[in-house]
């Protein structure tokens, strides 16, 4: 079972709020005028508009320029976005030291998103020695402000013993707080705890409830895991049609395990019509994403005529192109572990 950290990014709710402020050309024009007049909040907003392509053509150089103007006047959101840009190389060469500088400035001002991101830098050893205890310290500061991503990350720390003694019950406590606030990553992590009985009695129905909450927000691994529950009839009535729907949603959202599960579904024909061509197609997509499915591909290929095999390969290639998946050569796919879903 894999629990997930909240990654360095603007949260769903924060993104929605920013988009509301940039919804129309008139709003963008007003924000630009205020930014040009020196409003640091609006300078940050214009930076976000350029970074995301909302109301302005996407232009990372312009985004960084506006973020820097606001950050140099201590606007915490702009400092945090600069830190993220330098940490991930968005529109600029990665520079962990500069990322740390901006995160620390905003974190010292008590800005919870920066404190959360700084904790991730400590945990991952990005620009400094790995320091789990330091990560937990920053997440605790942000969690005290009821910042859900930090609360969720504290749950991961307690579940896995990152910088603290492992304590599954405390992990569940933090997951519950963040999940109740609507944070999808925490909802997924909490569902995983109920599915496995980590820190709580095993309860498939409650696991399905929280997977569903995360799945409705587009969390791909929650969609995949909820599909597994429907397929097996654990905590929910067995429903192959609903399982198929959820697997397809998860696959569309880029979950590699869903590709494999779809292939297995069409290979077995349990609840669906057995279809070796469909099974091959999903295995080829899984292989392109790095899943070790070479042997299964060969088995399915042996069931197909030359034409059906060619058609299945074409379908996989079209899906990969449509979903902008960067294929991994098959020679590498078998040796490259995929990101493991909870299942």
Low-confidence stretches: 329-343
The proportion of strand residues reads under 5%
Question: Cα distance, first to last residue?
Answer: 7 Å
- Content-based structural category: mainly alpha
The counted number of beta strands is: 0
Mean pLDDT: 91
Number of discrete helical segments: 19
- Main sheet overview: none
Principal-axis shape: globular
Radius of gyration of CA atoms, rounded to a whole number: 22 Å
H/E element sequence: HHHHHHHHHHHHHHHHHHH
Helical content band: 55-70%
Structural account:
- The chain has 343 residues and is mainly alpha-helical.
- It has helices at residues 12-21, 25-36, 40-52, 60-71, 76-88, 96-108, 112-124, 132-143, 148-160, 168-180, 184-196, 204-215, 220-232, 240-252, 256-268, 276-288, 294-301, 306-322, 330-333.
- Helix 11 runs antiparallel to helix 12.
- The model is unreliable at 329-343 (pLDDT under 50).
SSE blueprint and pairings:
Blueprint: H1 12-21, H2 25-36, H3 40-52, H4 60-71, H5 76-88, H6 96-108, H7 112-124, H8 132-143, H9 148-160, H10 168-180, H11 184-196, H12 204-215, H13 220-232, H14 240-252, H15 256-268, H16 276-288, H17 294-301, H18 306-322, H19 330-333
In short:
The protein is mainly alpha-helical.
List its traits:
343 residues, mainly alpha, 67% helix, disordered C terminus, globular
